[in-house]
Amino acid sequence: xxxxxxxxxxxxxxxxxxxxxxxxxxxxWNEPAECREAQVAQPLDGARLDKALVAMAPEFxxxxxxxxxxxxxxxxxxxxxxxNSRKVLEGQRLAVELVPTAESxxxxxxxxxxxxxxxxxxxxxxxxxxxxxxxxxAGNWQGTLLNGxxxxxxxxxxxxxxxxxxxxxxxxxGAMVVGKTLQAVxxxxxxxxxxEVHRQYLAIAHGRFxxxxxxxxxxxxxxxxxxxxxxxxxxxxxxxxxxxxxALAQVEIAGRQESxxxxxxxxxxxxxxxxxxxxxxxxxxxxxxLLYGGRPALGMHxxxxxxxxLSFTHPLGGQALSFEAPLPPDFAQAWDAVTGI
Length: 341
Prior knowledge:
By secondary structure, this protein is an alpha+beta fold. It has seven helices and 15 strands. The chain has helices at 18-24, 49-56, 62-70, 145-152, 182-193, 274-281, 329-339, and strands spanning 34-39, 74-76, 79-80, 93-98, 116-119, 123-128, 173-179, 198-206, 213-217, 220-222, 230-232, 240-253, 256-267, 305-313, 320-324.
């Protein structure tokens, strides 16, 4: 290596509290950041600081090491470095606090007040609020439902995705089931695959939807023009949504009177953005769904979609279970304006 690493300084360790030792002993998020020091060798004399850091810590990406410089975790001869492009000189001593990447810290418990509809030893059903991300991903490494589940019960850490077996979009509210044991997770996943978990949604869409019931059976795939979107494509995965018109209303949107439809949607498959894409493909984007052509209206500034009912057989007990998630205030107000209820 261009930078000698034989004088690395290990991080300080403190004695753990005995009351939490068993609970936390295998949790990587409790480990302190490593502080690594080295002296710049002649081959890197005059090199950029970020290049020297790559030689010191090759297991990290250059972009992450650059972010450590920008956040004040790198020192040159004891002084905080302020620029990735700064040239280092032979003999200078570099020190970097190797703070974990956001991705590596994603699976950590965060205490959250989960809105529980039902819970027993095997599963938990929650009414997910709009704005909650279900699973950590780029841009949302913390504050997700998964983080909350890890803090909610001790067994979540031993389960794939903390027991999450299906998802709702960030700005979709409503009922979700999560397994609390491996047996329950496996059984719920099989029930999902067999279409034995029944999910009904309420939606408010632009335009006058046809009276009665309709089945939208159109395959979905990633939109080739935008990775953020899904689209109806012949090469996509099968997707079916049954839609029933519940009410019609004329409302003012951006200064004009327009038709709006209150709909009940039943999923037969669970593709990404399925209801949103299916309705948009028929000319009825959801209110507030900017990604698929909707516009803010009736106080809805996120997609007007709520997972209202969830029914399935208990994965171990065998009894039929059905749950209804109360409407959140923004959706309830818009729904009342359309249905008159």
